[in-house]
């Protein structure tokens, strides 16, 4: 199946499947589930950039998603700013908040960075919960307006909202592929493979780590703004560490350091949990072992395992071609020696 999804044909097939999904969905609830999955897929793509491609595990990612969501909610509800202007400002504010936090946290490495960002995420959650004059505290922000019409395009039905979120997902995937395939993306991967080696190659570590961090939180900010316009109600729970761990699970199941992996993980897991809802709290008795099985036997994720397998096959094929060439060279050398003796 993974080979079938390879290349432009596979991406085109996924694009068509997304366009046709509303016609196959049984009801508006299915559209809601899929739209929510798309929003978290956008945020997961951002987390994968800093974690899967740069090697920095950011546990404050849900907090930055909440910053984008609350920026849009506060501007539209309290200050009556137009939706799309607030949407753009949500990305700007998220990056402005992320830059100083990234500048401080990225001086740490490995587990220290992850622990620090977990603390940062907790602080962001507490700020949202306690700063009632700005964030409305535990009451949350209600009455967030739906996305306003763009020319003849209005977004007042579940189907239209679905296509709006889907457009941003497609654009986010397209941009992410351009980033990771560029020189910048290769620089991020060099940092992931080793700070010392990347620095020896002339890579400015702090500048590139900060660039990856900023792009990552930008994805989170826009995903949060979309979430606010989609759900139209916000509470502090959005900044909770549970959402960061959910996105981490999506990456692990799909495959770290790939674009398709986190996308598939973010779409598969929510539907699996939906189908297990009939079991109520007992659904984790099924979902838990499945996750453990994947972590143990498919540690690189679905897409990551397929990529590694394809690389091994290519390597074996190359070695297979070299072996006959070496045998031919040996026979030629032996023939020359025999000729010389004669």
From TrEMBL:
GO terms for cellular component: plasma membrane. The chain crosses the membrane at residues 35-52, 59-77, 83-104, 111-128, 161-180, 210-230, 250-272, 284-308. It is found in: Cell membrane. Keywords: Cell membrane, Membrane, Transmembrane, Transmembrane helix. It is a multi-pass membrane protein. Pfam families: BPD_transp_2. It comes from the Bacteria. Residues 316-342 are annotated as: Disordered. GO terms for molecular function: branched-chain amino acid transmembrane transporter activity. Residues 327-342 have a biased composition (Basic and acidic residues). This is ABC transporter permease.
């Amino acid at each position: 199946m993974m080979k079938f999804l390879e290349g432009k044909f596979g991406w085109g097939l996924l694009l068509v499947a997304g366009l046709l999904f509303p016609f196959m969905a049984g009801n508006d609830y299915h559209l809601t589930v899929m739209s929510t999955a798309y929003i978290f897929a956008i945020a997961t793509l951002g987390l994968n950039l800093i974690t899967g491609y740069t090697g920095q595990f950011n546990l404050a990612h849900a907090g930055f998603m909440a910053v984008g969501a609350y920026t849009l909610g506060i501007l539209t509800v309290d200050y009556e700013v137009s939706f799309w202007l607030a949407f753009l400002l949500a990305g700007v504010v998220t990056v402005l908040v992320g830059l100083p936090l990234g500048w401080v946290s990225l001086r740490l490495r490995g587990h220290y960075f992850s622990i620090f960002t977990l603390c940062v995420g907790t602080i962001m959650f507490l700020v949202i919960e306690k700063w009632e004059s700005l964030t409305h505290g535990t009451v949350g922000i209600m009455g967030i307006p739906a996305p306003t019409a763009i020319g003849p395009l209005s977004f007042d039905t579940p189907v239209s909202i679905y296509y709006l979120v889907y457009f941003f997902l497609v654009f986010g995937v397209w941009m992410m592929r351009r980033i990771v395939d560029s020189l910048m993306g290769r620089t991020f991967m060099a940092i992931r493979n080793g700070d010392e080696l990347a620095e020896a190659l002339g890579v400015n570590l702090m500048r590139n780590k900060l660039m990856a961090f900023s792009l990552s939180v930008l994805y989170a900010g826009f995903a949060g703004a979309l979430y606010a316009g989609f759900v139209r109600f916000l509470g502090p729970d959005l900044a909770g560490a549970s959402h960061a761990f959910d996105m981490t699970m999506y990456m692990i199941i799909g495959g770290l350091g790939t674009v398709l992996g986190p996308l598939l993980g973010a779409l598969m897991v929510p539907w699996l949990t939906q189908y297990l809802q009939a079991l109520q709290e007992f659904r984790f008795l099924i979902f838990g072992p499945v996750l453990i099985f994947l972590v143990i036997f498919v540690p690189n994720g679905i897409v990551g395992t397929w990529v590694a397998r394809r690389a091994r096959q290519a390597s074996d094929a190359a070695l297979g071609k070299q072996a006959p060439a070496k045998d031919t060279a040996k026979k030629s050398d032996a023939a020359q020696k025999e000729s010389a003796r004669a």
